[in-house]
Amino acid sequence: MILEAKNIGFRYKSSGYILKSVDFKISSGEIIGLIAKSGYGKTTFAKIISGYLKQSWGDVLIDENKIPAHGFYPVQLIYQHPEKSINPRWKMRKSLCENDDLDEELLDILGIRKTWIDRYPNELSGGELQRFAIARAISKDTRFLIADEITAMLDGITQAQIWHSLIEISKKNNIGMIVITHNKELVNKICSRTVKLEEVNNI
Amino acid sequence: MKKTLLEVKNLSVSFKMDADNKSNNNLVINDLSIKAYPGEILTIVGSSGSGKSILAHAILGLLPSNSIVEGQIFYDGKLIDENLLGNLRGSEIAFIPQSISYLDPLVKVGKQVRSYTDKDETIEKQRNIFKYYDLCENSEKLYPFQLSGGMARRVLISTAVMEDPKIIIADEPTPGLDMESAKKTMDYFKSFADENKTVILITHDIELAINYSDKLAIFYAGHIVELTNASYFKKGAKYLRHPYTKALYESLPSNGFKPIEGLQPETTSTRGCVFKDRCKFKQEICDQRVKTHEYDDEMVKCNYDFRG
Amino acid sequence: MIITSIILIIMILGALITDEITSPNFSEKNQFPSLRHPFGTDWLGRDMFFRTIKGLRNSILIGTIASLVSSVIAIIVGGLAGTMPKWVDNLVRMVIDLVMGIPHLIFIILISVFVGKGAKGIVIGVALTHWVSLARVIRNEVLQVRNEQYVLISRRFGKSNWYIFKNHMIPIVLPQYIIGLVLMFPHAILHEASVTFLGFGLSPETAAIGIILSESMKHLISGMWHLAFFPGVSLVVLVLMINKLGENLTLILNPYLTRE
């Protein structure tokens, strides 16, 4: 399966181009790094291919087909701050099962403890919440994951644990991953190739 | 023997979770002692949620009302009480918080940095500081929400240095910044320390901090398990004394990206060593007690010393 | 809780007080407060205590109905403004600014004259003026929730508008609604009393606090202070109690609100 961003362009009505004629391709099972300097437009691009933002021009295609606007979006975006991604009034179980029933194996891979499932978000740490955010996004219909600085706020060991889990999930479910980060060492370690947004952006 | 500027002795911080039930108190910082010297950058690293921010808030007296604090804090040799703290905070001990949510969203930043005064000297000082931190003249007229991540950081730093403090405590100053802006922030801290002042940096981004720090304090589950010279962390895992510090070193992408199993314990008041459940060197004695070895500038809380 | 029980007692008592108890009894007219008549009697010999209770009951009834109607208007308007396209929101905000600019009392009087006086007029008048601040609160809450990251994420999971409304919005909007509703009562009740006092509300035969107070004005000169004092103070106490109820509710619902 191939996710393709074809000739993507984006601008706000009042400002200049943020993205222009950007082409990007990723296959299932690939792990690709996406880097650029702060504020350049990586998150904008990520939001376009994960369906949060409508591009001004161009298409986002999976195997040459447009992605349906309704239903579970096969490209899931995971944010840097899990506290904002999870409804603070819901118990973790409800958030976790928003898409699929509990998958014990998935929880094991991500290191999610049973005792956390019936807690509220404010009782868990950032690292623990991020694991839930990831677990929630992995459903049987997830084909691609975009990780936008997901471990930037976490310490070295938690970061290593989460990425190792993600790599295992990527292989097991044949999910393609786009890794957005400022951490060059991280990209070198886990990505098969890296795309510099400045190089594919034609503004 | 250098004189300490800030010294924390046997600090314990817990939070009352339940008005009536004392056993429900949540112990977050457990018998912590540390010293900070002028001219030095002391970096406190540890997993997120381990209580590092709470340590900063405890030193500054900014803990919420349901906190129970034990221990003593000394500034320049004097024991700090409520009165002294009120005088020191903001003037001699400055705080750079994590986010701009500490700023008033309805007031232009220039005014806030000047603490709402409009005296000529204050305005000039603010403008000079903005210039020093590469903030253009117009930025003083902006509101907090209009600042980019990097600009927000610099505004927060400016606010802190306005009163010529002797100590800066910075809580996670670099997340969200790209390499260039992050390095620049660290450069500002370095130049501040070079004026014989103290910077206490709290962060989980060791890879960045390590190139600027003098001392490294490793924070785990409410304890400082190791205090070492930052240079040792750069040299390699075998120079580090505590198993957790070693694991932290080896988990970094540039050093092998090896995680260890398990998570930080939820309670910091365990018997024996707080790291015992994840330690590959664990012995029976670690269940009972843990020794503190103190050296000149270094310390490790472990029944052994694994350097070398 | 204490306050709710007091209010309930007033309601029940008020319903039980028959016209007989409050009927004129010329042998006992113009009496000052005593053990037999704790609030005294008026120039017709009617017992002021029972009249006051009955009056309070009527005020509570009218206040409740008016507030409920008002709150429904507020939910609809606030909900629409928060969920429909921008032009609806802009229209709503213009209407809100417009209504806010009109002094309530005058507006209510105009409406009740237009609709025909009496209870119907007051209820409609109060309902049409008091929905405004609650509508604003609801609109703001709805807008805020709509833009929360976790709601946007729910949409990417394919969740329907109904799912989002039921699971994300209601838990936040409902407590605000309840608190807003309870806090509306005092305003409604006071406005009802004022409008009735001015002669535009309920008919003079009904035992309403406004009527009681307006009639007592004529007799103050003759020294019958108790005709105004007790009903007036009771009204104030009632309003204060309801306000406190609202505050307590806020406290109770707040831990639920602030799970962040």
Structure description:
Chain A is of the alpha/beta class and 203 residues long. Chain A contains eight helices and nine strands. Chain A is globular and about 50 Å long. The model of chain A has no long low-confidence stretch (mean pLDDT 91). Chain B has nine helices and twelve strands. In chain B, helix 6 links the parallel strand 7 and strand 8. The longest helix of chain B is centred in the middle third of the chain and has 16 residues. The radius of gyration of chain B is 20 Å and the shape is globular. Chains A and B meet through helix 5, helix 6 and helix 7 of A and helix 6 and helix 9 of B.
What secondary-structure arrangement, pairings included, does this model have?
The complex is a heterotrimer of chains A (about 200), B (about 300) and C (about 260).
Chain A: E1 2-11, E2 17-27, E3 31-35, H1 42-49, E4 57-62, E5 65-66, E6 75-78, H2 82-85, H3 92-96, H4 104-110, H5 126-137, E7 144-148, H6 156-173, E8 176-180, H7 184-190, E9 193-196, H8 197-200
Parallel strand pairs in A: 3-8, 3-9, 6-7, 7-8
Antiparallel strand pairs in A: 1-2, 1-4, 4-5
Chain B: E1 6-15, E2 26-36, E3 40-46, H1 52-60, E4 67-75, E5 78-79, H2 82-88, E6 93-96, H3 109-113, H4 120-132, H5 149-161, E7 167-171, H6 179-194, E8 198-203, H7 206-209, E9 215-220, E10 223-229, H8 230-235, H9 243-251, E11 292-294, E12 299-301
Chain C: H1 2-16, H2 48-83, H3 86-101, H4 104-115, H5 119-146, H6 149-156, H7 161-197, H8 209-220, H9 226-257
Q: What's the quick description here?
A:
The complex is a heterotrimer of chains A (203), B (308) and C (260). With 308 residues, chain B is α/β, with parallel strands linked by helices. Chain B has nine helices and twelve strands.
Largest sheet composition of chain B: 8 strands, mixed
- Beta-strand content estimate of chain A: 25-35%
Total number of helices of chain B: 9
Distance from N terminus to C terminus of chain B (CA atoms, Å) equals 27 Å
Our count of helices of chain A gives 8
Give the biggest sheet of chain A.
5 strands, parallel
Number of strands of chain B: 12
Taking pLDDT < 50 over at least 5 consecutive residues as the criterion, the unreliable ranges of chain B are none
The chain-level mean pLDDT of chain B equals: 85
Mean pLDDT of chain A: 91
Gap between N and C termini of chain A: 29 Å
Structure summary, number of beta strands of chain A: 9
The ordered H/E elements of chain A are EEEHEEEHHHHEHEHEH
Main interface by residue count = A-B, 31 and 33 residues
Shape of chain B: globular
| Helix proportion of chain A | 25-40%
What's the arrangement of strands in the largest beta sheet of chain B?
A: 6-7-8-3-9-10-12-11
> How much is the radius of gyration of chain B in Å?
20 Å
Rg of chain A, rounded, reads 17 Å
Give, in order, the helices and strands of chain B. EEEHEEHEHHHEHEHEEHHEE
